[in-house]
Amino acid sequence: MAKKTYEKPTIIKVESSHSKAGVPMPKQKIRKTIGGVNIDEMVDKFGSPLFIFDEKAIREKYRRAYEAFSSRYPNVQFGWSYKTNYLKAVCAVFHQEGAIAEVVSEFEYEKARELGIDGKDIIYNGPFKPYESLVTAAKEGAKIHIDTFDEINDLEKVADELGLEIPVAIRLNMDTGIYPQWSRFGFNIESGQAMDAVKRIRAGGKLRLTGLHAHIGTFMLDANAYKIETAKMVRFMNEVEEKVGFTIEYIDVGGGFASKNHLKGIYQPPEVVVPTIDDYAEAITSALYENLKGNSYPKLYLETGRHLIDEAGYLVTSVVASKTLPDSRRSYIVDAGVNLLYTYFWYKFNIELTREVSGISEPAMINGPLCMNIDVIDESILLPRLKRGDKLVISPVGAYNVTQWMQFIRYRPRVLMVTEDGNVEIIREKEDLSDIEKREILPEKLKLK
Amino acid sequence: MRIENLAINKNGFAFDPTTGETFTLNDTAREIIEDLAKGIDEKEIAKKLSKEYEVTEEEAFNDVLDFKEKLKLYGLLS
Fold this sequence. Notes:
CATH class of the largest domain in chain A: Alpha Beta
Shape of chain A: globular
Strand order of the largest sheet of chain B: 1-2-3
Number of helices of chain A: 13
Largest sheet of chain A: 9 strands, mixed
CATH architecture of the largest domain in chain A: Alpha-Beta Barrel
CATH superfamily of the largest domain in chain A: Alanine racemase
Distance between the termini of chain A: 61 Å
Strand content of chain B: 5-15%
Oligomer: heterodimer
Number of domains of chain B: 1
Distance between the termini of chain B: 6 Å
Helix content of chain A: 25-40%
């Protein structure tokens, strides 16, 4: 006689009439493919855990965002925010789509150059730009965005050294009605500090102000803040042109558009609270038209990162063990931990299974493999009883995780890209001991036998 | 051992007359509770499960031990 399908034994105390635990899950979240390729097959071939990026999804998102702006304003340029995800393959997709590079350190600058991006196609932001990197950026014609008065001094020295007048932009901060106000980057408009910086540049006579930049925040759920930002930047531009005589060629409104991720502490789902790209585009471009004077249309730069990449990235992890905790919850131990998921601190991720699992649901937590109590990917989730080897697909994780991840206790895993034509490419190999020990030096007298 | 007093119906609903608490459970859980109430030991229950279901005896053994832990936490087993 054929054996019956096994369901792991499950019992749930009925805590209240509203509890969703203890009944078959009405709708399990299942994801069997990414970019049309079977997830289980990718794990069989490439191992677990895996970060997987969907090239088609990246390109579609970019094109949709570009269209939202370019259909409203004639002079638009996106700069790919390297810090959001600087895997070469990911950057290359954005560059192929037409984005230039936006970098915030000499390391990111070198990375963009190494990938083949010309200096003139690099926006160089950041609160600390080492002197030598300013020399290189100035020589190569990068768009340097000044953050402090000290940096004005540095750049004037660079101008002397190179015998060049260096075109520059300044970074601005302002009240856009959001809390907390981001005030640590650049010069404040309301206090007059920003105009002082412009006058300081004019007085030095070695730099030429050609652009204005601001970055008002991250995961911005209020599109109207961008309208306020843009209006203030354009009015400031008008004032600079009238009073100081510089001609402003571009306005860079920065990044900060939200993705469809679920912020912890916000009850409503992202589909309800996150503005659409059209909302952001309308806010920014309407403010441009309302405040620009004459027929000049300065180039509009955008440094959108998270919005463009977050939803194209997945982390696939496998259940390696489970146990009952003293509070009767089930703990699933999976092979990927919070060292790979920096954005865990803000997001409650969407967690999906790769197969339908029969049986009643029970409250569970998902723990990573780190020998650390903080390694909790989800502390409260209803799941049917999973078996060892079952896979969980965690998303959206495309933004900030593969840049802020940490090698800690375990090796970092492979990163794949499912290409538009359905092929699967390894875009970052999994680490081994040599990666970690490459930079270590053991003094001779400490060498063991 | 309160599991002996549990009233379990075929739809996976269990009532504990001692405390008035109610539980939901699946078929595998019901079978294990019935066997534990009869005094059958864990290894023997695992063997039975592996004969009846598509599960190895080793996996079933771990599941029975884990399930007993849950019963203890609910106060159904001492």
